[in-house]
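re: the backbone from monday

yeah here it is again, tokenized this time
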């Protein structure tokens, strides 16, 4: 988590989302196990999926490549709610 947060802190687009009121609500690491030629198994988080939420107006998902220490993709979802209970 600390490594992913450090990568997020260094990304300008993620920082812009945080400035706009988004908060990191979840970090889900993608863990892979690699078996070497000598039979040893190494488990390591190579990627993380980070969710940032901004109240009720939407959320963003950032894909973090941990091995390269960078954010590779950000997808922003905007939600519009039409409340028809009062009409």
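seq for it, each position gets an aa:
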């Amino acid at each position: 988590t600390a490594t992913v947060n450090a990568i997020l802190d260094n990304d300008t687009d993620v920082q812009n989302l945080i400035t706009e009121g988004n908060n990191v609500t979840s970090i889900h690491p993608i863990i892979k196990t690699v078996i070497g030629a000598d039979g040893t198994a190494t488990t390591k988080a190579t990627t993380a999926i980070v969710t940032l939420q901004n109240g009720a107006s939407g959320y963003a998902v950032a894909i973090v490549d941990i091995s390269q220490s960078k954010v590779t993709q950000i997808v922003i979802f905007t939600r519009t709610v039409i409340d028809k209970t009062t009409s």
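The chain has a mean pLDDT of 92. The first strand starts at residue 23 and ends at 35.
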